[in-house]
Amino acid sequence: MRIFTKKLPHPDLPAEEKAQLLQNTEYQEMMVESTFMYLTLDLPTAPLYKDEKEQLIIPQVPLFSILAKFNGATEKEYKTYKENFLKRFQLTKLPPYLIFCIKRFTKNNFFVEKNPTIVNFPITNVDLREYLSEEVQAAHTNTTYDLIANIVHDGKPSEGSYRIHVLHHGTGKWYELQDLQVTDILPQMITLSEAYIQIWKRREEDETNQQGA
Q: How far is Cα 124 from Cα 150, in angstroms, rounded to an integer?
């Protein structure tokens, strides 16, 4: 993965001083290559509003909206104690398996908050070709992924519980596991859950041909 980083001047500085600083080398964009074990997907801030019946509305966001973080063009601001940075991310390789970690939990000095936003995602045919740099797209014949496992967090951050959805490869059926209890589940029900961690498997050539037949 390529990470493009640009240092930002302090926001309280006068405009002329900011313009001068942006000419310095330390404020120019830098690129580094980095390996990754999983991809962190950032959720938008959940609006706390209610409908006409005074019931809390749970927001939703498409998976491809939060995957845009890795398209090489989307910039996000990162703040440290002293400095601010803009960063862009772009994938340079697609491994056989991908792990998505949907960032639901935010920790501050007092407590942990959970973002309840529902991520709308397809179970199959997630094509990640557009998130590859142009020069490496040709080296990737298969860029389509299918979901094989989905970890869900239910409830509050401090007292919630976990469920796991797992695809049985031999039968193509989905099962839900919680503690020692195993039940079958319809694929469309998986997309309604508060997904936290997902495992995706890259479709191989023979699998792609079977799907297209």
A: 13
